[in-house]
Amino acid sequence: MAKPSASISPSPSLNSLVAYESVMRRRIRTALLLVSTALFVSLYLYLHIRLSPFVNHRSPSPAYADPDDFSYLSYITIPRFPVFTDRQQLIVIEPEPETEPESSNRSRGASISEVADGAEETAVAILFPDWEVFIVADLSSASPGEELHCIFQNNATSPARFAGSLPFSNQTTFLCLLPSSVRRLRPFSQPLISRSSRDHYPAMPNRQPRELLRWSFLAYESLSTEDDVILFVKGVNSRQGINRSPLEFNCVFFSGGDPSVSVRTAVTSSAQEVFRCAHPDLTVAALEGSEGNMEKPRIKISLEILREKRIIPTVALYAPKSASVQPTTSKSLTCASTMVYNVAKFLPEWVIYHSRIGVERFFLYDNGGDDDLRATVDELNREGYDVRTILWPWPKTQEAGFSHSAVYYRDSCTWMMYFDVDEFVYSPSWHDREQPSDQLIEWSLLPPNHSQSNIGQISINCHDFGPSGRRTHPAEGVTQGYTCRRQIEQPLEQRHKSIVRLQAVEPSLSNFIHHFILRDGYRAMQLGLEAAVVNHYKYQAWPEFQTKFRRRVSAYVVDWTQTVNPTSKDRTPGLGFKPIEPKDWTNKFCEVTDEGLKELVRRWFRRRTSSGFVMPW
């Protein structure tokens, strides 16, 4: 008889193995989840550290918070790469461990806005791009040559360089670098200005120190006319050609520190960084007593965003009617205005040449250069030229600076040339002349019977010149040293510069690439290349050209160090995002040899001396 078959069941060892594999799978999933979470947190912290100098998110505030504390605002700007500038050679002292006893005489309890000797001063600091801290102060007790220091919240210090006096408020300005150890802290607090680098940042147990204002969102300048007030604001109309309605805003005028006690007037125009509104009633109690204080006006002005119930941080001061409009004794036919940065060695050639062909006055908006521009301007004025500088330290505000000049000098000049210092206008018809004439611009470039004409703007095409084999700046001048340029293939797409009739400028003051929007009834006139051309010495020897990497001056042009919009016409063909000299730079952009202006300038200006021929610059 056959034995019955036995049933087969898993052995104990097999069950244990299955259970072990199940447990391991769960552990592996858990480990992968933990690793993924750790990587995500690490990436978040890394991005936060890298971007947080430019991102500041806070919960909404009541409608009107402390006017000196705008920390509730949220905004973001694109971080910028470091630039090569002498400012970054400043010595920054990082904090050391505290070894001094608490009984030290250091200024621990001082106000953050005072100079260390105890004299109370009013100051406000703004975080500019590239970690520059710009300080606007009323330091009546500090002289321009005095050694001062910025002391930050962790007691790190950096030298405070005198940056000039704001011409429209007479306030003193300084510039220092934010130390690297402070860049890791949040929030950034306003620094202390001190005469000693050994002073300490004051302890404030009962309140939070004021935060650094951010340049990306700020009312920074104002100008009064007989009829209205012009306010310049960064961060509202941020995209070129797209402007918010003036109905969305009010101008807010207040004295002291509380904008809730203020006077508001309607905004009538909103374009680019320019906002126009009515003058306030100075007899209102909130502003009473400020009228007539022309030397040091203390009425603040800002912009209110009605829908958000937000007042934009401000360093702008209001001056009563006509207090800030440029006085004039006589009106010039033709002037020139431009924004400059470290142009002292180029300026004499530009001024002397254009003065001899008819430009009577030159207005330079100094964008915070650190060369000896003042000495160069003083020397030109001693020689009989009329050159004036206006400190305009605000980054990337070329359009706003041009708007300002169009109003500020409207009663001083009929026509304004908006050319840069590396741009020279001339007409081929001048080659028949043995000597220049201060009427050449009027005869050759302005319209016939221009006083009766409806021409409001004259546009002139540019020739872009290359390095022309040069490795250094030509001592004889750019008109003599750079003689090779790019070929013109599509004249209609050429860059052009303008001569503008100031009374024809549209009230919004909008301008793009050196030309303005005109009032109704006026029109622009384009000159052909046979009539006039602007020689733009754009691509110079590399030591000069690489300074363009510092920062582009237009509010709507991306800085070259930012890896966005690489096809922009503002960028140089074949150039990367770092100031590294391209191969064969000296021979680039050389398609046509053009010595027309070189020969003309040599004939007009070269003089024989005992040591040979020299130029007057």
From TrEMBL:
GO terms for molecular function: glycosyltransferase activity. It is found in: Membrane. GO terms for cellular component: cytoplasm; membrane. The chain crosses the membrane at residues 31-49. It is an enzyme of class 2 (transferase). It is a single-pass membrane protein. Its EC number is 2.4.1.-. Keywords: Glycosyltransferase, Membrane, Transferase, Transmembrane, Transmembrane helix. The keyword Zinc does not apply. InterPro entries: Glyco_transf_92. Residues 94-113 are annotated as: Disordered. It comes from the Eukaryota. The keyword Transmembrane helix applies. Belongs to the glycosyltransferase 92 family. This is Glycosyltransferase family 92 protein. It comes from Trapa incisa. The lineage of its organism: Eukaryota, Viridiplantae, Streptophyta, Embryophyta, Tracheophyta.
